[in-house]
Here is the input.
Amino acid sequence: MTAIRVEQIELRHISMPLVAPFETSFGVEREREGLIVTLRGEGLTGWGEVVASREPGYSPETAQTEWHILHEFIIPNVLGREFANVETLEAIYDNVRGHPMAKAGIQAALYDLLAKAQGVSLQKMLGGSGEKVKVGVSVGIQPSAGALVERVRAYLADGYPRIKIKIKPGRDVAEAQAVRKAFPDILLQVDANSAYTLDDAATIKAMDDLNLLLIEQPLSEDDIFDHAKLQPQLKTAICLDESILSARHARWAHELGACRIINIKPGRVGGLREAIRIHDYCAEHDIPVWCGGMLETGIGRAANVALASLPNFRLPGDISASARYWKEDIVEPAFTLNSDGTLTVPTGPGLGVAVREELLERFTVKKEMYREPQKRTLAFPGLRERQ
Here is the structure.
C-alpha cells in the first residue's frame, strides 16, 4: 500500500442547529457542537468528525476537551508523517489514555485520505459490501405519550422501518406501551442511556412483554457486571452501548452474559478500526450488532453508512437521513431515505460525498490550521455573529 504524507491539518469547532430539540435522559440538545478534522496531503483531502458535544453527558468528552487533546498531543505527532495504514496512527496515539472521540475523528480523516489515494470507496477499504444499509430512527423524549405516538406515526410515514424511543425514569413504561398499542407490528426498541439501576429492575421488566427488539443500556455505563445480573431476568435482549469501549469490553460483556446485542459507534470506541475489531469478535460469537448514531453531520454519517455495510450489522442502525436532524447538511449529496427504509452507500473514492465548504464555514465557531513547519493560524469566523 502506498504511503501518503500528511502535509497540513485543519481543526474546526462547529455548531449546527438541529431541526428540532432532541431530548434524552442526559438532557436536551438544540444545537449540535462537534469538531471536524481535515488532513491534506499530495493534493488530497480527508475528512473526519469528532462526535463529542458541548456537555459531558453521554461521555466524559466534550468538544473543548477533544480540541485540547488533538491540538496538544495528537496533531503535532501526525503532521509531517507518512501513513500507509491506520494502525500506524493508532500506534502514535496509543500513549494518550482515553479520548476515543478525538482519536476516532482523526482516524476517520486518515481513512478517507488513504481511500482517496487508492481510488477506492471507504466501504471497500473497510470490507463492506452491498448498495444499501437498513436504517431506523431515534425518537427523543416527547412532552407526552400521545405526542410520542404522533411523532412515531410521522416517522413511519416517512418510511423508517424501525423505531427507537428514548426513555428515562418516569417517562418509560407508559410511553413504550402507548407506542406498542398504536403500532402492534413495528420493530420497536427503547434506549435508557444508563438512566436506571438494578433497583429499577421491576420497571425494566414491565416492558418485557412489549415484544421489543432490545432494551439499550439500561444501567450505568461502567457496569457490565450488573447488566449480567439483569439480562437473565429478561426475555428481551439487552443491548450495550456506553459500556462497550473496545473489543475487550465486548468480550467481557459476552463472557459475563451481560447482553445479547451490541451497538457499535466508531466515536465511542476510538475509531473505525476498533469498530471493525468489535464487529469481527461479535460475528465470531454470533452476537448481532448495529451502528449507533451521535447526531453526526454528513461527514460522520458517510463513515457510519460504510461501516454498517459489513456483514454482521444485522439490525437497522441509527443512521437516519440528513433531514432527520439538519435543515442543511454540510455534504452533498445529502443522505435521503429510500422507499425500502434504507440509505444508499456512497461508492465514490473515500467517503464518497463532497463537503460543502462554504456552508461548513458558516457553522464554524473556531478553526486552526497546522502546516509544516508547524505554524498555527487561529481564526474565529463566527465570533462577531455570536456576540
Summary: The chain has two domains: 4-120+354-386, 124-344.
